[in-house]
Design a protein that fits this description.
Layout lengths: L3 H13 L5 E17 L5 H13 L6 E2 L9 E6 L2 H13 L5 E15 L10 H10 L17
Antiparallel strand pairs: 1-3, 1-4, 2-3
């Protein structure tokens, strides 16, 4: 599941059925579009000078990053596909600016609720169907486990 509030609600629902769960979170960086940007400048003043030149050239659809890894870079657009970003890049280059296309990444969390049992599953088919109806996209995966006993 991808939404933490849904995972928390599902965990409570399972707890009400007598099933104790453990939450696991998997974080991955997922590409989500393409930025056309002028790379970070040495400082705020240099970035503001580039912004001024861009506006004088008629380019007003822009954003100056003020913090983070792109501090003092200038975004000239965010695009879903690379071909659209390349069109924007060419238009910016035609006005005499050195910009580049960079992939945009966003962190995506996937949440897992795990529980263990011996014998039959504590979730009946009816229980599972109700859960799947309330939480679209939820998946049930069974994993066979073996335990080592040390004496």
């Amino acid at each position: 599941m991808e939404k933490r509030n849904q995972v928390d609600k599902l965990s409570l629902s399972l707890m009400a059925m007598g099933i104790q769960t453990d939450l696991q979170i998997e974080s991955t960086d997922e590409q989500e579009g393409y930025w056309v940007m002028i790379p970070p400048q040495a400082n705020r003043e240099a970035a503001m000078a580039v912004v001024k030149r861009l506006r004088e050239a008629g380019i007003t659809d822009l954003w100056r990053f003020t913090s983070g890894s792109f501090a003092n870079a200038i975004s000239l657009g965010l695009f879903r596909n690379e071909s659209r970003a390349e069109i924007r890049l060419k238009a910016i280059a035609a006005k005499g600016f050195d910009a580049e296309v960079r992939p945009r990444y966003r962190q995506k969390n996937t949440y897992w609720l795990s529980f263990s049992f011996t014998g039959d599953s504590p979730l009946s088919e009816t229980d599972w169907n109700s859960i799947a109806e309330i939480y679209p996209g939820v998946e049930l995966n069974s994993v066979a486990c073996t335990a080592l006993i040390h004496r």
